């Protein structure tokens, strides 16, 4: 089996390496530096399992330099290009997926296209009508940044918006690549598969928002947030997981997926879906206000990534807090070794930690770490468990 993978971010690269255990994989990304690193068996993203797998000699993984080389003669092609949310059109920007599907349809119309990029509900149906190419399916991913390949090796579930013979052959290969046994495979219609992705991420954002608003109440009323959360989560229907207060949900997926689902609800009665999006804005503003109340001269932001083992600060919740603080007139400095520039969002980068700590009146940290624990008396965090 020959599989092309287009787009080598977390989703594309983790899928490419996973499938290269049992299939011949030809991977392409438009970023030349990323292709160069991968040819040198170096990971362009922080992910332990990806870094290890790239050094394996028993995988059939080849990085190619043209889109054509990842498309021609392929049996299956996975599209994992970015689909950022466009605030002006209230929709995902699917242009990269559109262009890739159009190219594949012209170049290799008989192959099966598997979309892994997150897309609006109804996208595949519209694209099939537009192109006349019925060989397009959607299969949602449920991956964590920094744990993408691990989550592919041990998936919670496998979902495909089609149950054709070709899809089942692909799933058979996929099952042979993963380490987890007895993974449930669900075949649905394509629109239901698209909905599963957006509703899953919106539920996670809802859970984060719930515990954040609980924490806001506790902080305002001077209550012990940890005790309240522990008592609530002893109920097995709620569960003691994914309940650690934060500065808001961020990362690449949750902010854009919740906004897209809200947009899909435009003519459908709702209050909860809209509230999930609004709650995140309210939480970030509340955190900013709490910091401002302390009247610091200089606020030190510890890490822009906000999550452990991640090198991604796209849509990080701290960005809005930095903006709020600087707009209020507070001096902000940032400790973030991954940022090589001198400034980020108008704030000065200090990559010497001791210098950063000495110059900060308050150290703002989404999560406590050993590095900042000795400055605990001036750390502002809502971290209770130390988990993401």
From TrEMBL:
It catalyses: UDP-alpha-D-glucose + 2 NAD(+) + H2O = UDP-alpha-D-glucuronate + 2 NADH + 3 H(+). The keyword Magnesium does not apply. Its EC number is 1.1.1.22. Substrate binds at residues 142-145, 197, 242-246, 250, 306-307. It is an enzyme of class 1 (oxidoreductase). One of its GO terms (biological process) is polysaccharide biosynthetic process. SMART domains: UDPG_MGDP_dh_C. Residues 300-387 form the UDP-glucose/GDP-mannose dehydrogenase C-terminal domain. It comes from the Bacteria. GO terms for molecular function: NAD binding; UDP-glucose 6-dehydrogenase activity. Gene3D superfamilies: N-(1-d-carboxylethyl)-l-norvaline Dehydrogenase, domain 2, NAD(P)-binding Rossmann-like Domain. Keywords: NAD, Oxidoreductase. The active site is at residue 253. Pfam families: UDPG_MGDP_dh, UDPG_MGDP_dh_C, UDPG_MGDP_dh_N. NAD(+) binds at residues 29, 34, 83, 118, 145, 256, 314. Pathway: Nucleotide-sugar biosynthesis; UDP-alpha-D-glucuronate biosynthesis; UDP-alpha-D-glucuronate from UDP-alpha-D-glucose: step 1/1. Belongs to the UDP-glucose/GDP-mannose dehydrogenase family. This is UDP-glucose 6-dehydrogenase. The lineage of its organism: Bacteria, Bacillati, Bacillota, Erysipelotrichia, Erysipelotrichales.
């Amino acid at each position: 089996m020959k599989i092309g993978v287009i787009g080598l971010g977390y989703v594309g690269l983790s899928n490419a390496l996973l499938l290269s255990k049992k299939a011949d994989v030809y991977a392409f990304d438009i970023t030349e530096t990323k292709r160069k690193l991968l040819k040198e068996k170096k990971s362009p993203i922080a992910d332990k399992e990806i870094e290890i797998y790239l050094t394996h000699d028993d995988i059939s993984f080849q990085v190619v330099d043209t889109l054509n080389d990842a498309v021609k003669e392929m049996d299956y092609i996975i599209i994992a290009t970015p689909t950022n949310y466009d605030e002006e059109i209230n929709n995902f920007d699917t242009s990269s997926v559109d262009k890739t599907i159009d190219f594949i349809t012209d170049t290799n119309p008989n192959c099966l296209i598997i979309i892994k990029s997150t897309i609006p509900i109804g996208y595949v149906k519209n694209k099939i009508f537009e192109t006349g190419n019925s060989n397009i399916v959607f299969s949602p991913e449920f991956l964590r940044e920094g744990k993408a390949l691990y989550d592919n090796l041990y998936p919670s579930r496998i979902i495909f918006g089609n149950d054709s013979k070709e899809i089942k052959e692909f799933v058979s290969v996929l099952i042979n690549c993963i380490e987890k046994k007895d993974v449930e495979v669900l075949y649905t219609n394509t629109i239901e598969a698209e909905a599963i992705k957006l509703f899953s991420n919106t539920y996670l954002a809802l859970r984060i928002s719930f515990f954040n608003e609980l924490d806001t109440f506790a902080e305002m009323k001077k209550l012990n947030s940890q005790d309240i959360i522990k008592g609530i989560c002893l109920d097995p229907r709620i569960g003691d997981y994914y309940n650690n207060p934060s500065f808001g949900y961020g990362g690449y997926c949750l902010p854009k997926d919740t906004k897209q689902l809200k947009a899909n609800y435009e003519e459908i009665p709702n209050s909860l879906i809209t509230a999930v999006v609004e709650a995140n804005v309210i939480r970030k503003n509340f955190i900013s206000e709490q910091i401002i109340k302390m009247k610091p001269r200089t606020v030190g932001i510890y890490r822009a990534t906000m999550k452990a083992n991640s090198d991604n600060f796209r849509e990080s919740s701290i960005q809005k807090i930095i903006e709020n603080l600087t707009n209020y007139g507070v001096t902000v400095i940032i400790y973030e070794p991954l940022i090589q520039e001198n400034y980020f969002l108008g704030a000065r980068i200090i990559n010497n930690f001791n210098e950063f700590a000495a110059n900060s009146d308050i150290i703002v940290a989404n999560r406590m770490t050993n590095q900042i624990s000795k400055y605990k008396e001036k750390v502002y965090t809502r971290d209770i468990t130390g988990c993401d």
